[in-house]
Structure formats: C-alpha cells, structure tokens
Design goal:
Layout: E1 3-11, H1 14-40, H2 45-51, H3 56-67, H4 77-114, H5 118-125, H6 129-155, H7 164-168, H8 175-185, H9 189-200, H10 212-233, H11 246-257, H12 263-274, E2 284-286, E3 292-296, E4 302-306, E5 318-320, H13 327-342, E6 354-362, H14 370-373, E7 375-383, H15 389-413, H16 418-433, E8 450-458, E9 466-471, E10 476-481, H17 483-487, H18 492-513, H19 525-543, E11 546-552, H20 557-572, H21 577-590, H22 596-609, E12 613-617, H23 625-641
Parallel strand pairs: 8-11, 11-12
Antiparallel strand pairs: 1-5, 1-7, 2-6, 3-4, 4-5, 6-7, 8-9, 9-10
Length: 642
C-alpha cells in the first residue's frame, strides 16, 4: 500500500471553531491525560509491559467509566474512539522504547562482564599475550570459514520461508554476535580469554600492545553509558499534555520552597522546568473515511462536515483552504463521496482514495482568543494506488480475493457467535459491492519495467546518494549519477542543510552548557532535499525502464559510515592511530550524518506512486560509491535468482 499524507487549513465561523477548541482542550485532552494516568497505575501494567501493548478492551472499559464524569461527558463518539486509539499507541511506543533500553542494558552488562585488560587476560589464562594471540588467530580463522559458509546457505533461503528460529538466531548474523555466542558457551579458560581478546579488539588480532589508559577510558565510557540507560529506564510513564501549565508551576513552587532530598530529585525538577510543554490539544482521528462528508458550493469551493457534531451545533461545516498542488486530491474526495452517497448499496467505501483523517490545531503566535490565533488543520491519508482506473482494478481484485478467503474460512468453522455472524454478513456485503468499480477515474497505463534493469542506490556520509543503473544480465552499467547530478541546480541546498545542522548543533551545545532549553526545531530543508533526490532517482529509473530500485538495508548504515570515515582517516594520516581517530571525530562533526531512513522512505513513496518495485540488500562496505551502487544492484538480482 502506498499511502501519503496531505493537509489543509480549515476555516469556519467563530462559533464552530470555538466549539472544536473547547471540545479538544477542555474535554478530550483531559480525558486522554486521565486515561494515561489510570492505566499507568493498573495492577496488570507490568504484564502489559512484557507483552508490549495494552488490550484495547481494557482502555475502552476505562474510557466508558470516565464518560460518566461531567468533565469528560458530552463528546462526539468519534472523540472517545480517537482517545482510546491514541492512548493505545502512546503506550505501545513507550513500551517499545522501554524494551529497547532494557535490551541495551543487558547488552552493555554482558559486554562489561566480558571486557578485561590484556594483563587480566594473561593472569586468568596463566598464558602469555603471544599465546593468547595465537589462540585468537586459530579461533578467528576457523570461525570465519564456518561463518561464510553459513551465510551462503542462508542467502539461498527465500525471505518468505523465515521461521521463528531464524529470528531467535539473529545474534549470529554478525561476526561479533557469533563470537559472543561462542564465548558464552565456551568453558575452556584459554579459549574464553582468546575470544575476549578478539571481541574487545573489534574481531581482530591486534599486534600493538594495549594502552592501559585507553583501556580504562574505554571501559569507563561503557559504564557511563550503562548508568545513563539505567536512569532513562526509570523515566516517568506518559503523563499527557499540560495545556494549562499547572504542573510546571507546581514544580516551580517546589523548587522555590523545598530543598531536594537527593541529586536525582534535583535533576528531575530541572528536567521538568526545562522540558518544553505543548499547549496544543491532542489530535482527533477519524479512522473511517465515511465519517467525513464532502460538499461543494456553486463556486466549486470545497467544504467538509464531521459526523457526530449535529447534536452539539447545527450542521457545522468547514471550508478547505488547500494548496493548489493538493486540490485534485480534495476534489477526488468529493467525487468519491458523492458517488458512494447516491448509491451506498452499489459502491464500496473501501475504494475511496481517502483512507483516514486527523484533526489538529497548529500553533501560531498572536494575541486574542486561541481559536482565532491557532489554525485548525485537517490531515488526510491518501492511498495513491486508487488514483487511476488500472491501479484501482488491481486493488479491487486484491480486496475481493481477501474477502472471499475470509468468507470461506468463516463458513468452514461453523457454530459462529452472533458477533462472528455479523462480521460474516458484513464481509459478504463488502464482497458484493466490490464487484462494482468506481466510475470516472482517469486512465493511465501501468508502468512496465524490465526485470533485468535495476537501479542501485548507495548511501554514504559525504555523498548521501549515488546511483548506478545496471543491466544485470550483461552486468553492464548503463549510467551513473552522483548526488550533484541528481540535484542539479539545487545542489547548493545540500551544503545549506549541512551548515544549518552545524549551526543548530553549536547552539544546542551552548544551551546545554548553560542548562537552558535546547530543543531547537529544524527546518524542512532536509526533507525537501530528500524529495528532490527521490524524484530524480525515480525519474532515471523510468528513463531506463528499470524494473526495480535497490536500496541498502538501514541496519547496515552504522557499519557503512564507520568504514567510510575510517578509510578517509587512514588515507589522510597513514600509520598514526590517534591522529586517525581525531580526524574521524572532526570529520563526523563537519559532515553531519544524513537522515537515511527519511531518504529511503521518500524513495519508496515515489517508486510506489510510479509502480516501480523496491528491493533491499546489504550495501558493500569497500570500493567507491559508484561501485557500491553497482554491486548492490547485482547482489539483489543474484538473490532474486536464488
């Protein structure tokens, strides 16, 4: 599914805007805050933390009990549903963050338990350092041979056939992880010391004697990282948004009138005072596309109404003030809704180009009533595959097949409950409606690329993206494109973005030294450059009728960046380790890392819009960026053949 998000300001009379502001500020956001607090005190909270999410029915039950209170009553049904969904997602994200921190703590504790100086290894093994090095070489040679052989076997297994066992053995997927697993299982003292020697030297046998000061510094660094993680995992549960600033004022009063009992309490007060509060209410989600009614007037101006508000006010409607680049999407919303509304029994809302919507307030500066200062924004999720007649047909047939499988499975079960019978009837109705395609959709032939033509995209620190168009059968490169060629006249934006990041980093560092707020927002220049790169990459793919675009796996980026910086350092200062490390540190500061995840996402969105498939593969570490892009495409084609 290729889904993009568009947004537009909404304008209406003051009464309607005031109603929305008061509903979201005085009722909906306090409801979400109360839900977060009550669920955080629930006796099953630790069980939910292990599972990674809170059951939706538990949140709904808590919400139903809160509805009866006057301060949370008289909200539209969609507002309550949105609050339940939002709370579930907030805690799901928080649980994932806590579990990630716990894994990091366990990993660092495991590392520190293994980490020993060369002197300690000699004392524990009762052997000289030369003997440990010889044993390390033997272990490394035998393990690398087996590791390479296993990798070749795994590459022949199709991704779709991965089992749960593969996920559990993911620690063996890297050389470091494999050696660590052997270390845990090994009981022989000399072998354990040899493995510890390899692990702390980055899986290499070092010929240079260890610097005790450097070892102590490295160990202390890991200990500090562990301490920071343990402090972070004690972080407060989600508390919601303090729209009135009461919590901030309460903390300020405590700081003025009390003496902190310990350093932790002092740090907690400081963090609370420096933390930037959001004075905008939580958004309201409309997850069903039929919850919105689309209208046009005699001047073809577009209006939208939200279901469930008629009891609170008389037919409220909001005028859409969208950008001209997004106007065609909102016009299509009107067309789809009008066709469906005139004959609901014939057409399925599952083929609306609009999937869901979100209402939120955008903060603006000024004086006066808040609903006049701040701007009401409508965000819409759009499934771009439903824009043309040809792609809509593909989606329609896919939905028909899924509905038929669901119906068949439910009919085979027998003895269905009332709820299951209702769902079965709903699936049959949906299946019947899907037989009728939406009329009047534009026709555009589907993109037909050549399967043997691939576009490899290598990512790097100095050059965010380098492209190679490859004919995989002849192994011939049809074209190369550097980041400068891809951006063309906009190449200066890349340098401007880097200078902006350096300036913000410097300002953030100064603020941190002064214990001042340091959450400086960045402009959207980086995102704009990503979109320009994505457009250029997709354009060159279409020029050569490429069947797919091959992108690097994101988890490989740390190793790619590290290798690139190390190679530059070795070339710049050969034979001087300390100088290379200092050069690498300065280089990372001057050439800021790019947001590779955002760039990859932009390329994926543009590719799906144009019907070009996406493949992923491990990016080679050595060679030039052009050769890496070429090899990336060839590796992906080879994996496809296997």
């Amino acid at each position: 599914m290729s889904v993009i998000t568009i947004q537009s300001p909404l304008f209406s009379d003051e009464k309607s805007l005031r109603l929305f502001w008061e509903l979201m500020v005085e009722k909906n956001t306090p409801l979400i805050n109360e839900l977060l607090e009550q669920l955080g005190k629930h006796p099953n909270f630790e069980i939910w933390l292990q599972k990674g999410e809170i059951p939706k029915d538990t949140i709904e039950t808590t919400c139903d009990s809160l509805k009866k209170r006057e301060r949370f009553a008289d909200q539209p049904g969609r507002f309550y549903t949105s609050a339940v969904t939002l709370v579930k997602e907030i805690y799901k994200s928080w649980f994932a963050l806590q579990k990630r921190r716990q894994r990091q703590i366990e990993g660092k504790e495991r590392w520190l338990k293994m980490l020993k100086s060369d002197m300690e290894l000699q004392q524990e093994s009762q052997c000289s350092l030369d003997v440990i090095r010889v044993k390390s070489t033997e272990i490394l040679t035998s393990f690398v041979a087996k590791f390479t052989q296993d990798k070749k076997k795994q590459s022949k297994i199709k991704k779709g056939n991965k089992t749960k066992k593969n996920k559990k053995d993911s620690s063996n997927s890297t050389l470091l992880g494999g050696l660590f697993d052997i270390y845990d299982k090994t009981e022989d003292c000399l072998s354990r010391c040899a493995l510890a020697y390899l692990l702390k030297n980055n899986c290499q046998v070092s010929e240079v004697d260890e610097d005790p000061d450097q070892y102590a510094k490295s160990r202390r660094k890991k200990e500090i990282e562990l301490e920071r993680l343990k402090n972070q995992i004690k972080s407060r549960k989600p508390k919601g948004r303090d729209l009135t600033g009461e919590k901030w004022l309460k903390t300020l009063s405590e700081v003025v009138n009390k003496i902190p009992q310990n350093e932790d309490e002092s740090k907690s007060w400081q963090a609370s005072l420096l933390r930037g509060n959001s004075y905008m209410p939580y958004p309201v989600d409309y997850e069903t596309n039929t919850d919105l009614t689309w209208l046009t007037n005699d001047k073809d101006r577009i209006f939208v109404k939200f279901n469930g508000l008629n009891k609170l006010m008389n037919e409220p409607k909001f005028e859409v003030y969208c950008d001209s680049r997004q106007l065609h999407y909102f016009q299509r919303f009107c067309q789809d809704w009008q066709i469906w509304h005139e004959d609901k029994e014939t057409y399925s809302s599952g083929l609306f180009i609009l999937r869901s919507a979100r209402l939120l307030w955008q903060e603006r500066k000024g004086k006066g009533k808040p609903w006049k200062i701040h701007r009401l924004i409508l965000q819409c999720s759009v499934e771009t595959r439903l824009w043309t007649q040809e792609e809509t047909e593909l989606v329609r047939f896919d939905k028909i097949n899924k509905a038929e499988k669901t119906i068949q499975n439910m009919e085979q079960k027998g003895n269905l409950s009332q709820t299951q019978l209702s769902r079965l009837e709903s699936e049959r109705t949906q299946r019947r409606k899907l037989n009728n395609p939406f009329p009047d959709r534009p026709s555009k032939p589907l993109y037909q690329g050549k399967s043997n033509i691939l576009v490899g995209v290598s990512l790097g620190l100095d050059k965010p993206a380098t492209v190679a168009v490859v004919d995989a059968i002849s192994k011939k490169v049809l074209a190369y494109r550097s980041v400068k060629q891809l951006l063309g006249n906009n190449y200066n934006l890349l340098n401007r973005q880097r200078q902006q990041q350096l300036r913000l980093s410097h300002d953030r560092h100064k603020a941190q030294k002064q214990n001042a707020p340091n959450s400086f927002g960045e402009s959207e220049l980086g995102q704009y450059v990503d979109r320009l790169l994505a457009d250029a990459i997709v354009a060159i793919a279409k020029t050569y009728f490429a069947g797919s675009i091959v992108l690097p796996q994101l988890q490989d980026m740390r190793e790619i960046i590290q290798s690139e910086v190390q190679a530059r350092a070795e070339k710049k200062i050969p034979g001087y380790k300390e100088g290379q490390q200092n050069y690498a540190k300065d280089y990372r500061i001057n050439v800021h890392r790019w947001s590779y995840g955002r760039l990859i996402e932009s390329i994926e969105i543009q590719a799906k819009k144009n019907g070009i498939s996406i493949e992923s593969c491990s990016q080679p570490i050595r060679d030039s960026k052009q050769e890496q892009a070429r090899d990336l495409a060839l590796f992906a084609y080879k994996e496809r053949q296997l």
